[in-house]
Amino acid sequence: MGQTHDFPFGIMDVVELLHLRIRRPSAKGVYVDCPFCNDKRGKMHVNRQNDTWRCNYCNESGGMLALYAALQHISNSEAYREICDAIQNGICFSGYSGTQTDTQNPEPAEESPLAEPLIIHNTLSALFSMLSLTKEHREHLRTKRGLTDEQIEALGYKSTAPFYLSRPLAEKLVEKGYQIQGVPGFYQKDGRWTIRFSTRTAGILIPVRGIDGLIRGCQIRLDVPLKNDDDDPDKDGAKYIWLSSAGKPKGTSSGSPLHFVGDPCAGVVYVTEGILKADVSHYLMNRTFAAMAGANNTAQLDPLFAFLAQNGTHTIIEAQDMDKYRNAMVSKGASKIYLLAKKHGMECRRLTWNPNYKGIDDWQLALKRQKEAKEDRVTNFKQRFIYGLCAFDAIDDEVETWHEKAECEGELHEYLGLTEEEYALGIQSGYTELEKLLLSQRQEKSFRIYQLDFSDGAAKPFAFGGIKELHKANYEQPPAAEYRLVYDGTCICRKEDDDTAVLEQIFKRYSQCLPKDYTGRSLSPSDVVELYDDCGRRYFYRDDHSFCPVKFSPMLAKR
Predict the structure, then answer these.
(1) Fewer CB within 10 Å: N-end or C-end of the chain?
(2) What pLDDT is recorded for position 90?
């Protein structure tokens, strides 16, 4: 069907012959699991009209012969002969119908061409004006994303409408004179216009804007991530989908438009993956962002970068998620950003941050909250002294602060964190004896920090992942040869603290506000910490939220 050649087979025959898993139909073909990157979300589109394929995740693409040849490790001519032999022997057949999904959709629905940008903008803007934002969604945006009510209103976020309002909303737009044919999300059912809203796709509706400020489409942040029945239980479902009506009568695909938020004339523009992520980061950092809908969806960056370069942009900051250090596909997409920036004469820098936070928005929000909580009194004098966070003479400032309070909060010894006996010793014998007593309550521990070395440019599959990720990468123990010693120092803690307590103190000290003499990254999952003393050496792998004892060969680590 739709073949542009004289071959006695089509690409759907190849799909059947290779046993590719079909996830869902499309207007021009089907979506299958990609056999190249092994992603199981149906990211590879197979176009039965022109016998081509492309994975939207790893960006591999080609024709049907190339698909078969690449997977069988043979030439295209050999692929042609093998496929013909298979057809002749009845292994596969033209007009593929190997799955229930495909047989139920033998002919794709007739789609509408994508409308002009201004029409899409006007129609979607009118739709947004008819919608509201639920209390739950507003609370998520405020507490989980760090946006203010004013920022939420400026961004125009709304909640998706319930299914039963889809047709009334579409008909109301038509009555008001808006064109809805060719606008993503709108399609005809039983000859009447409706919108592709449903219970499964309920969530926050996010407008995607071009550099001109026009709405080009919408994403939905789903309330409940979508998963297939046969997906790995440990695997996250899809959290974001496009408001699209592809494959529906008179419907249309949204495509994957780029999102732009900020100043079109900015000298520095950040590039990241995720529309909501870009919006949040824009407000937290007061910087200009361009956002792709996927780590490898870089094709549309080419015309954008050409425009930005002409408009005065001189620097692109690649701000892809931190899994670019462990995911080869994300790393590949990040490299494409660099090459495209260079192509248009702009500098490109890679942004790296605290690996405990995956996205730039998570990191910036954490910094904001740390700043807000900085003035909060979380520890008393004794705690800070015991852990080596202040000198003993800081007690004078604490006493003065207590006296200056309009209403003193409890007794002075409680404010300082001292017992009545310790406070009495300080009064009777002077601060010298009190200092000696407190010094006797603490100990010094020696430790080393080892972190993965990325100087070779290669992605490490377990980078910034917990012990489960290490094992998934087929390592029983952390491979010391992939690590570098980044710090050798000491920490002060309570005398009664065991290894677990010591490690948690090290993590607190070296994961957020880093000491000036520390040159490594923020302590994070996949790092190895060595504790050593007269009793020997112990090695611990930083898991997602704790430390796990491991075996480690420090002599193999780089220095």
Answers:
(1) C
(2) 60
Closest CA to 360 of 272, 294, 425: 272
Length of the chain equals 559
- Nearest Cα residue to 82 out of 96, 98, 65, 99: 65
Question: For residue 99, what pLDDT is reported?
Answer: 38
In which residue ranges of the chain is pLDDT below 70? 1-6, 88-109, 228-235, 373-378, 406-409
State the DSSP code for 524. Answer: -
- The whole-number pLDDT of residue 1 equals 41
- Distance between CA atoms of residues 353 and 57, nearest Å: 24
3 state SS of 484: strand
Q: Are strands 186-189 and 158-159 parallel, antiparallel or unpaired?
A: unpaired
Q: Which residue has the tokens 């092994």?
A: 38
The rounded distance, in Å, linking the Cα atoms of 9 and 153 is 54
Go through the domains of the chain in sequence order and give each one's CATH number.
Answer: 11-104 (3.90.580.10), 117-242 (3.90.980.10), 259-369 (3.40.1360), 381-440 (no CATH), 443-556 (no CATH)
d(CA 466, CA 454): 18
Q: What is the pTM of this model?
A: 0.73
Say how far apart CA 177 and CA 459 lie, in whole Å: 53
Q: Which residues of 224-238 are buried (b: 16+ CB within 10 A; e: fewer)?
A: eeeebeeeeeeeeee
CA 480 – CA 463 distance, rounded (Å): 13
d(CA 316, CA 318): 6
Tell me the backbone φ, ψ of residue 136, rounded to 5 degrees.
-65, -45
